[in-house]
Specification:
about 130 residues; alpha+beta; four-stranded mixed sheet; DCC1-like thiol-disulfide oxidoreductase family protein; DCC1-like
Length: about 130
């Protein structure tokens, strides 16, 4: 099993990019691989092949398991260190799996609205199909 964590997120979403940038994970889990879901990394393609909807939520891959959407942010909250004001806020917000399940869909909806208003396509592309990834 590889050490560290992999996070697949929407690199064109400034909220998503800010969220993953402020996480304090290296101190607790080791190496952190941040992957833009719109890129060609084989791990992104593997997540898509496994049926995960990257427009519906980010993915955290840790200890050989994939966590998607609210489960991913809950895991990140559990694993993140306590340092930093914003990190502490997100940690308290998502530390409860029930709260993460209630709040995450609102954040995902806000992300989709932002992308639409800014003219950015969803990760799956304008036709709703996943882009070619090899």
């Amino acid at each position: 099993m590889t050490k560290g964590i992999t996070i697949i997120y929407d690199g064109q979403c400034p909220f998503c990019a800010s969220y993953v940038a402020m996480m304090r994970l290296r101190e607790t889990v080791g190496p952190v691989a941040l992957l833009d879901a719109r890129g060609g990394d084989p791990r992104v393609a593997a997540a898509l092949r496994s049926g995960l909807d990257l427009d519906a939520g980010m993915v955290a891959i840790w200890q050989g398991r994939q966590f998607h959407g609210p489960e991913a942010v809950h895991l990140l909250a559990v694993l993140s260190g306590p340092a930093g004001l914003l990190n502490g806020l997100q940690r308290r917000l998502f530390l409860s799996p029930r709260r993460a399940a209630r709040v995450y869909p609102l954040l995902a909806r806000g992300r989709r609205l932002f992308l639409r208003l800014s003219g950015r396509p969803p990760i799956s592309g304008p036709a709703g199909t996943a882009p070619d990834r090899e």
